[in-house]
Design a protein that fits this description.
By secondary structure, the protein is of the alpha/beta class. It is 44% helix and 36% strand. The chain contains four helices and five strands; from the N terminus they run ββαβαβααβ.
Length: 100
Amino acid sequence: MTISQELTKNGVKMTLMGAMDSNSAPGFSIAILSAIDEYDHVTLDFSGLTYISSAGLRALLSAQKKANVTQKEIQVINVPANVREIFSMTGFMSILHVEE
């Protein structure tokens, strides 16, 4: 999985390409936790995300918990249908701020 970042007017946008699995989730976790430290608003663009494993879900949950504690915002956009289905089945649709 690759992660690209670009500054936005209210924070940073992180675009993910590929599969977030046990190999790539640790790198994603480091990147998003760092972004939460630096910016008030983090947008995650999942348009290129092909798969998310339980390790990826744990990384997202950890990031959302940190954002909640530090009063930062994570917004998830462009979620593919297969990832959206996983979010629905695991309750992540109610945990994350997912754009419809």
